[in-house]
Write a structure and sequence with these properties.
Blueprint (H helix, E strand, L loop, with lengths): L8 E4 L6 H12 L3 E3 H9 L3 H8 L1 H16 L6 E3 L9 H6 L3 E6 L2 H8 L11 H18 L2 E4 L4 H14 L4
The structure holds shikimate-3-phosphate.
Length: about 170
Protein backbone atom coordinates (compact mmCIF):
# COMPACT_ATOMS: atom_id res chain seq x y z
CA UNK A 1 0.00 0.00 0.00
CA UNK A 2 1.42 3.42 -0.86
CA UNK A 3 0.41 7.05 -0.97
CA UNK A 4 -3.08 6.67 0.48
CA UNK A 5 -4.14 8.27 3.72
CA UNK A 6 -6.68 5.49 4.12
CA UNK A 7 -6.62 1.88 2.92
CA UNK A 8 -8.86 0.94 0.01
CA UNK A 9 -11.92 -1.14 0.88
CA UNK A 10 -11.59 -4.30 -1.18
CA UNK A 11 -14.51 -6.71 -1.60
CA UNK A 12 -13.65 -10.35 -2.16
CA UNK A 13 -15.66 -13.57 -2.34
CA UNK A 14 -17.04 -16.15 -4.69
CA UNK A 15 -19.01 -15.33 -7.85
CA UNK A 16 -22.53 -14.29 -6.90
CA UNK A 17 -21.63 -13.11 -3.40
CA UNK A 18 -22.74 -9.55 -4.21
CA UNK A 19 -19.35 -7.83 -4.39
CA UNK A 20 -20.40 -5.37 -7.11
CA UNK A 21 -23.88 -4.64 -5.73
CA UNK A 22 -22.69 -4.24 -2.15
CA UNK A 23 -19.59 -2.34 -3.32
CA UNK A 24 -21.65 0.27 -5.18
CA UNK A 25 -23.96 0.77 -2.19
CA UNK A 26 -21.03 0.91 0.21
CA UNK A 27 -19.26 3.52 -1.91
CA UNK A 28 -22.48 5.60 -2.01
CA UNK A 29 -22.89 5.32 1.76
CA UNK A 30 -19.34 6.53 2.37
CA UNK A 31 -19.25 8.92 -0.59
CA UNK A 32 -16.14 7.19 -1.92
CA UNK A 33 -15.45 6.27 -5.58
CA UNK A 34 -16.38 2.73 -6.65
CA UNK A 35 -14.51 0.49 -9.09
CA UNK A 36 -15.38 -2.99 -10.29
CA UNK A 37 -12.24 -4.84 -11.40
CA UNK A 38 -13.98 -6.89 -14.13
CA UNK A 39 -15.39 -3.68 -15.60
CA UNK A 40 -11.96 -2.07 -15.54
CA UNK A 41 -10.43 -5.10 -17.30
CA UNK A 42 -13.16 -4.88 -19.95
CA UNK A 43 -12.45 -1.17 -20.46
CA UNK A 44 -8.70 -1.81 -20.83
CA UNK A 45 -9.19 -4.81 -23.15
CA UNK A 46 -12.15 -3.47 -25.16
CA UNK A 47 -13.65 -6.95 -24.71
CA UNK A 48 -15.99 -8.60 -22.23
CA UNK A 49 -14.62 -11.04 -19.65
CA UNK A 50 -16.36 -13.84 -21.56
CA UNK A 51 -14.70 -12.82 -24.82
CA UNK A 52 -11.28 -12.67 -23.14
CA UNK A 53 -11.69 -16.21 -21.75
CA UNK A 54 -12.91 -17.46 -25.11
CA UNK A 55 -10.27 -15.76 -27.26
CA UNK A 56 -7.15 -15.90 -25.07
CA UNK A 57 -8.00 -18.32 -22.24
CA UNK A 58 -8.00 -18.02 -18.47
CA UNK A 59 -4.22 -17.62 -18.13
CA UNK A 60 -4.20 -14.42 -20.17
CA UNK A 61 -7.29 -13.17 -18.33
CA UNK A 62 -5.44 -13.67 -15.03
CA UNK A 63 -2.40 -11.73 -16.30
CA UNK A 64 -4.58 -8.83 -17.40
CA UNK A 65 -6.49 -9.05 -14.14
CA UNK A 66 -3.27 -8.62 -12.13
CA UNK A 67 -2.12 -5.71 -14.29
CA UNK A 68 -5.48 -3.98 -13.88
CA UNK A 69 -5.46 -4.68 -10.14
CA UNK A 70 -2.07 -2.94 -9.85
CA UNK A 71 -3.41 0.06 -11.74
CA UNK A 72 -6.59 0.41 -9.70
CA UNK A 73 -4.82 -0.07 -6.37
CA UNK A 74 -2.56 2.84 -7.28
CA UNK A 75 -5.54 5.23 -7.26
CA UNK A 76 -5.72 7.87 -4.59
CA UNK A 77 -7.64 8.83 -2.49
CA UNK A 78 -9.12 5.59 -1.22
CA UNK A 79 -11.70 3.69 -3.25
CA UNK A 80 -14.17 0.86 -2.80
CA UNK A 81 -13.06 -1.96 -5.12
CA UNK A 82 -14.98 -5.12 -6.03
CA UNK A 83 -12.62 -7.88 -7.18
CA UNK A 84 -13.50 -10.93 -9.26
CA UNK A 85 -13.97 -14.22 -7.42
CA UNK A 86 -10.58 -15.49 -8.59
CA UNK A 87 -8.50 -12.31 -8.41
CA UNK A 88 -6.53 -13.19 -5.28
CA UNK A 89 -5.76 -16.80 -6.13
CA UNK A 90 -2.30 -15.98 -7.43
CA UNK A 91 0.00 -15.41 -4.45
CA UNK A 92 1.67 -12.39 -6.06
CA UNK A 93 -1.59 -10.49 -5.52
CA UNK A 94 -1.43 -11.01 -1.75
CA UNK A 95 1.40 -8.53 -1.37
CA UNK A 96 -0.45 -6.09 -3.59
CA UNK A 97 -3.52 -5.96 -1.34
CA UNK A 98 -1.56 -6.11 1.89
CA UNK A 99 -2.51 -3.17 4.12
CA UNK A 100 -5.87 -2.62 2.46
CA UNK A 101 -9.13 -3.44 4.24
CA UNK A 102 -10.44 -6.68 2.80
CA UNK A 103 -14.10 -7.55 3.16
CA UNK A 104 -15.05 -11.16 2.43
CA UNK A 105 -18.68 -11.54 1.36
CA UNK A 106 -19.60 -15.13 2.07
CA UNK A 107 -22.66 -17.27 1.39
CA UNK A 108 -23.39 -20.98 0.99
CA UNK A 109 -22.62 -22.48 -2.44
CA UNK A 110 -26.26 -23.34 -3.04
CA UNK A 111 -27.33 -19.69 -2.69
CA UNK A 112 -24.43 -18.45 -4.82
CA UNK A 113 -25.18 -21.05 -7.46
CA UNK A 114 -28.79 -19.86 -7.78
CA UNK A 115 -27.50 -16.37 -8.49
CA UNK A 116 -24.92 -17.37 -11.12
CA UNK A 117 -26.23 -20.50 -12.81
CA UNK A 118 -27.96 -18.63 -15.65
CA UNK A 119 -25.19 -16.07 -16.07
CA UNK A 120 -22.49 -16.04 -18.76
CA UNK A 121 -19.64 -16.37 -16.22
CA UNK A 122 -17.07 -18.66 -17.85
CA UNK A 123 -16.31 -20.53 -14.60
CA UNK A 124 -19.95 -21.21 -13.75
CA UNK A 125 -20.78 -23.35 -16.77
CA UNK A 126 -19.90 -26.79 -15.38
CA UNK A 127 -22.79 -27.35 -12.98
CA UNK A 128 -23.38 -26.99 -9.26
CA UNK A 129 -20.88 -29.63 -8.10
CA UNK A 130 -17.95 -28.09 -9.98
CA UNK A 131 -18.97 -24.67 -8.71
CA UNK A 132 -19.10 -25.91 -5.13
CA UNK A 133 -15.67 -27.58 -5.49
CA UNK A 134 -14.18 -24.32 -6.76
CA UNK A 135 -15.80 -22.45 -3.88
CA UNK A 136 -14.45 -24.90 -1.29
CA UNK A 137 -10.94 -24.70 -2.80
CA UNK A 138 -10.99 -20.93 -2.58
CA UNK A 139 -12.35 -20.45 0.91
CA UNK A 140 -9.00 -20.84 2.66
CA UNK A 141 -7.55 -18.00 0.57
CA UNK A 142 -10.52 -15.72 1.23
CA UNK A 143 -10.27 -16.53 4.93
CA UNK A 144 -6.53 -15.90 5.09
CA UNK A 145 -6.75 -12.49 3.44
CA UNK A 146 -9.98 -11.14 4.94
CA UNK A 147 -9.91 -8.27 7.44
CA UNK A 148 -13.60 -8.94 8.01
CA UNK A 149 -15.88 -11.86 7.12
CA UNK A 150 -19.51 -11.00 6.34
CA UNK A 151 -22.06 -13.73 5.83
CA UNK A 152 -24.59 -12.41 3.34
CA UNK A 153 -27.88 -13.65 4.65
CA UNK A 154 -29.42 -10.18 4.56
CA UNK A 155 -30.47 -7.78 1.82
CA UNK A 156 -27.57 -5.76 0.33
CA UNK A 157 -28.47 -2.57 2.23
CA UNK A 158 -28.35 -4.44 5.54
CA UNK A 159 -25.00 -5.93 4.56
CA UNK A 160 -23.74 -2.43 3.79
CA UNK A 161 -24.94 -1.15 7.18
CA UNK A 162 -23.07 -3.98 8.92
CA UNK A 163 -19.90 -3.23 6.94
CA UNK A 164 -20.07 0.53 7.60
CA UNK A 165 -20.45 -0.10 11.34
CA UNK A 166 -17.57 -2.53 11.36
CA UNK A 167 -15.13 -0.41 9.35
CA UNK A 168 -16.00 2.72 11.36
CA UNK A 169 -15.39 0.86 14.61
CA UNK A 170 -12.07 -0.35 13.15
CA UNK A 171 -11.23 3.27 12.21
CA UNK A 172 -11.05 2.68 8.46
CA UNK A 173 -13.71 5.10 7.19
C1 LIG B 1 -14.18 -15.22 -11.84
C2 LIG B 1 -15.15 -14.36 -11.40
C3 LIG B 1 -15.73 -13.31 -12.24
C4 LIG B 1 -14.74 -12.88 -13.33
C5 LIG B 1 -14.25 -14.08 -14.09
C6 LIG B 1 -13.58 -15.12 -13.20
C7 LIG B 1 -13.68 -16.27 -10.92
O1 LIG B 1 -16.09 -12.17 -11.43
O2 LIG B 1 -13.65 -12.20 -12.76
O3 LIG B 1 -15.36 -14.65 -14.73
O4 LIG B 1 -12.62 -16.86 -11.17
O5 LIG B 1 -14.37 -16.49 -9.88
P1 LIG B 1 -17.32 -12.19 -10.35
O6 LIG B 1 -16.79 -12.81 -9.09
O7 LIG B 1 -17.62 -10.74 -10.19
O8 LIG B 1 -18.41 -12.96 -10.96
Amino acid sequence: MSGNTRPHLVLIGMMGSGKSTVGRLLADALDWPFYDLDEQIEIQAHMTVGQIFQTYGEKTFRQWEIQTLALVLSYSPAIVLALGGGTLLDEQTHKMVNGHYIIWLDAPSKDLWLRVKDSARPLAQQGMEAFDRLHQERRATYEKLASVHITCVDEPDKVVEAIVQKIRSDGNA
